[in-house]
Every structure is written in structure tokens, then in C-alpha cells.
Amino acid sequence: MAEAIRVRDLRKNYGDVQALDGLSLTVEEGEFFGLLGPNGAGKTTFINVLVGLVRETGGEAEVFGFDVETDYREARDRIGLAPQEFNVDRFFPIREVLCHKAGYHGIDHEEAQRRADEALKTVGIYEKRDTRFDWLSGGMKRRFMLARALVSDPELLILDEPTAGVDVQLRHDLWDIINRMNDEGTTILLTTHYIEEAERLCDRVAIVDSGRKVEVASPDELMSRGTDTVDVGLADPPTVAPTFDYDGVVESRMAEGRLEVVTSRGGALVPDLLRDLEAMGHEVTDLDIRRASLEEVFVDMTRTDSSVGGSSEAEEVVQ
Ligand SMILES: Nc1ncnc2c1ncn2[C@@H]1O[C@H](COP(=O)(O)OP(=O)(O)O)[C@@H](O)[C@H]1O
Ligand SMILES: [Mg+2]
Q1: H helical segments located in 130-217
Q2: Are residues 44 and 92 in the same domain?
């Protein structure tokens, strides 16, 4: 068994807007799974369906085998959610907020207090336990959102853009905490538009656009589908790039006095390239291979897929 999330042909319409348009995907138990997509792709809507905040228009969604509508309680109690927007009761000390949250999941008062303290320690704001949410700094608010997601000791931790707008230090801290959770067996579903975040953390990522899945693969597999650039220094660089007439060469060009050969074959092309350059009378001084980044592959995939609408939006959010 061991499927943490299983959705089939999931649909959600808001009036004329199809926020989810037949999304199907499976997340295995224990996986660190990323959902990548431009703004408006439907990521938050998907999460809201999983936690019962939004009713699906069609299709099926299960969490650990429990239907998110007909078995709402069973499904919801297994999920800890750190939502994209802060939705916190601002007037109570944060420790109390956590106790309430644990209580909501059926945890008794004493145990709730123990969990609240533990969660606050995990995210590093235990000393702020008697402070109201309002009075926390921006970074501490982010930490608190994670603590609230952890307080019910969830089997599935869902993080909706958990590091949006946080500084580098906090981002790395949050990554460490989330990674530890995953090492201890918690399944993670993370949405992000920081491609580097997905590249570093996720076992697999789904690229979603316009409410549909475009692709699912490991970051490595996705990157291997992009083109690589072989960057060659030549002792006496020509003004016009030499051409190579074998497989795998996408483009050959001169850039700032260096030869750049864009290839779908990566480093495998280098022996041929060196041999041909030598035959042409060029002396190679150095050589570097630049791999396609996940970001480039992502932009390519979402650009072609959203050519009907929203491609400018897709580019805007990739930073
Ligand atoms: N409550 C709502 N009412 C109307 N439209 C909505 C609502 N929530 C989301 N949408 C629309 O659904 C689409 C998907 O939004 P969302 O799920 O928030 O995407 P993402 O999280 O990937 O940025 C967008 O076009 C958005 O404007
Ligand atoms: Mg969102």
C-alpha cells in the first residue's frame, strides 16, 4: 500500500476559472514530494482540497487511503498544514494556539501542552511561547506556522510556499527542520516556486500548470532532459563558430570570445568535439560543461504548456 496521497482526475471550478483541471498524482509514504508551478497553477487549491477547505468539483482525493470528503476526519487528522497565508488566532499566546490546535485533533490537554512545547523547541521559538502571534517578527511567524503544522505529529506534512519571502538563513533553518522530519519518516508535500528549493530537497517533483500535471520525475531526471552547454576556450578564437554535424548538437555559437556548443548529450559529446576542433586546427585551452538547471527546464515546460494564456505569468514568478 503506502500511498500518502492519491488523486485522480481532480477538478475544481471557481465560476469560469478551472483551478484544477483533471489533476492526477500519487505521493508515496515517506516521500519528499514537490509541487512546482507558476502562480495560479492550482497548487493551493489542490492542498485546500486535501485538507477539506475546498470541495472538489469532480474526481477523487485520498490521504493514506481515506477519502478527503467521506472520511474527512481520518484524512484530516493525518495532515499537518503550514498554509501559504497566515491564518492564526492573533490574540492568544502562541503556546495556547498550539494547544488548541492539538485539541482540535483530539489530543488531550496534557499531551497537547507537551507537544506544543516540543514543536516550539523544534522550530526554535520556545522562549517566545507566551507571546502573541502579532508580536512575532516575520521570520518567527514562519517558524510558528511550521510549529503549528507539527503539533499534531502528522504523518503527512504539507507546506505551501513555506519559505516565500524569508531570508537565506531562515530558509536553510527551515530546510534542515523539514529534512529531519522527512528522515524520521514523515511524508512531505511542498509547494514552491523557488526552484532551487525543489532541486535540493525533493525526491520527486510534479510540475503543474493550469490545474494539470505537466510532468513528474526526480529533479535529476528533469535536468537531464534539458540541454547542456559545453563552453570551450580556444587559443585563437574565430569570430564565427565552427559547425559540427553530428547528433546531439543543438547549437554552436561564439559568446565573448568562447565557443559554446549547446547539446542534448552532455559530456558524452566532448571527445568528438575535441577531435573535430583539433582537426580544424584549433587549440583548446580549457573546457567546462554547464548542466541545464531545473529552473531552465521548468521555464521551458511551463512556457510551452501555457502558451494559450499565462506564459508571462509563468516567467514572472521564477526567480
Ligand atoms: N476562492 C477562489 N475564488 C475564485 N478563484 C480562485 C479562488 N482561489 C483560487 N482561485 C483561482 O484559481 C486558480 C488557482 O489558484 P491557486 O490554487 O491559488 O494557485 P497557486 O497556489 O498555484 O498559485 C487561480 O486562477 C486563482 O485566481
Ligand atoms: Mg498558492
Answers
A1: 138-150, 168-183, 195-201
A2: yes
